[in-house]
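Appendix B. Raw example, untouched.
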Amino acid sequence: MRQYEDGRAFAQKKDQEDPLKDFQQRFYKQEGVIYMDGNSLGLCSKDAEKALMNALEVWKKAGIDMWEKYDYFLYQDKLGAMCAPLVNADPEEVTICMSTTMNVHQAIATFYKPTPERNKIIMDDLNFPTDRYAVYSNIRVHGYDPDECLKVVKSRDGEYIYEDDVIEAMTDDVCLVLLPSALYRSAQLIDMKKIADAAHERGIYVGFDLCHSIGAVPHDFKEIQPDFAVWCTYKYLNGGPGAIAGLYINKKHFSMEPGLAGWHGNRKDTQFNLEQYFEHAEYAGGWQTGTQPVLSMAPLEGSLEMIKEAGLENLRKKSLDITEYLMYLIDTRLSKYGFSVGNYREDSKRTGHVALVHEDAIRINAAMKARNIIPDFRFPDVIRLAPVPLYISYTEVYDMVDIIVDIMEKKEYENFANKRGTVA
């Protein structure tokens, strides 16, 4: 059991003992700012910048020769192979393409094969809504009614997904399940293997959205065996704002044709024959569509190299420790002001951020920003705090809590309107 103490000296001691402490120097951290929003947009690193500038230099001097001479034509294969260890998948099972939402479209278009008898898709009611928007539109494309074919498993408490409830909903008319690996508000990490095993026992395809866990939590797809997965790369992977996304296709499905075909999904040995018929490349790259944006992809290369250097297991170890330390400080220093922890405390059930709950969260969040803390508000009462292990120190966590105490003592939050911004 981890043990913590109050006081800044304890936080400083933890920083001195932190084997990852030197990685902070490789990020562009702003003086006097405590950045706790890496679960929404990771900070820019010098490693990402270097990879981007290298791609620009190659473009400047090589022009179109950058594709073949410098191997950027198959850059997505290289980056996919670099991402594969994050989910313990084979390199050919992972590719980098499009956006998370478009990859959801691609996966649903591939795996949703409705019949009059079996046409329902299971989702939850707490996931980030873009997944449901994509599922709705795919159901409509097939001529079915989304309100009838989308089977939403409602949370018992509005905070967590209960796996047994999802499994109970796996009736004979269900053909596909799409769930998040982690909830964006409460930081819950769901039992993906339990869900996948139950779905496959019933002949149901299952996929996961890893946006809020990839790079923060090691996943084992060789054990879980999902049929597909999607994720963004701009949170814990620090790939940059709106960066390219990830797509996993289980190798047992490589013979399936993609729901959305494009010339970059064609076999590489015949791609430039430019024939008017599609020859599907039987690996994850076969689900590519158009030419991928190299300058959006390049920062990810630098970030993934750094994560490999640090070791994902080491990042997870520090993440669990520093978030538990934050929860300890909430319990001991903030609870008397009406704050509580809105996430599971068990290591196996939580990801990389802490859900700080308060009835005045909107105004407190604004007051924190005015004091150079960058948190993240989620309606109606959650302030998300992500002490990302690559670049956040224990001392910053302590100092942040100190500032929150001062905000509450002085009632500074009362100076702000109870109204969230466009980007909460």
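End of appendix B.
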